[in-house]
Amino acid sequence: MKRSFKLLTLLSVFVLFLVGCTMEGDNKSTDSSASKDGDHVIGLSISTTNNPFFVDLQKGVTEAAKEQGMSVKVVDAQDDTATQLNGMDDLIQQGVDIILVNPVDSDAITPAVESANEAGIPVIAIDRSSAGGEILSFIASDNVEGGEMAAEFIVEQIGEGGKVVQLEGIPGSSSANERGEGFMKGAEGKLDVVASQTANYNRAEGLTLMEDLLQTHSDVQAVFAQNDEMALGAFEAIKAAGKENDIIVVGFDGNDDALKSIEDKEMTATIAQQPVEMGRLAVQAAKDHFDGNAPDAEIPSPLKLVK
């Protein structure tokens, strides 16, 4: 009897061992998001999915990757540099084949880019570049040109010497630096830029900042916001002050809300980027790399004025 009990116990342990091995194998295949053998895995570190522009950018990446038979792992930085660094580290630890990054801050992202370089993972920057580390390719609109386009349009609308305020993007981001550079270049000697302050590419901050600016610069004639989210916030403040017929608002990006606002005769214009196309261009650059063809160091995405 005792012998039978021991045999039964040993059999039970053996069965449990087999089940455990099977479950472990199942977990390994579930945890891996890599697709079929030979497929490449793209890691996408996006600055925020709270901004429609970057939602469209992500869409362009995922659609193009699917067409190319690649899979994508997305990490959302939520406009926080520490969160983005952690997300980049996760992608590196998971061993993705390439990382596409849209930095929150061009300086702060440098250590993560350098870590990817050390791990042998190529990095492609989209819309905003990295101040350091090795970037395989940089896909972006010509932000300097876009800033100049905005200034030239405002001069056409309000005339030389007109008073204008600029709402700046996230300090340290390459897009904010370049758009500001282009705008100030286009405004030099033609516009009176009475204030230029940051609203961090955020709609709510754009509204609050514009409320304050209207208190100190009640005679302002135009606003240039370095993205559409800030422009939409600024317009709400202007409308609340009853000045929507006195102040023109020009944004940058061409997101759906801004285009609707322009159609409704609220915002005046935007310098429209093509974020879906930018995402597709980034995936094409990745494919070129995988195919053994070096992509261009800089790949431009076209801009257009929408009014």
From TrEMBL:
InterPro entries: Peripla_BP_I (IPR028082), SBP_2_dom (IPR025997). Pfam families: Peripla_BP_4 (PF13407). Residues 1-24 form the signal peptide. GO terms for cellular component: cell envelope. CDD domains: PBP1_ribose_binding. It comes from the Bacteria. Keywords: Signal. Transmembrane segments: none annotated. Its main location: other. The keyword Signal applies. It is found in: Cell envelope. Residues 42-293 form the Periplasmic binding protein domain. GO terms for molecular function: carbohydrate binding. Belongs to the bacterial solute-binding protein 2 family. This is D-ribose ABC transporter substrate-binding protein.
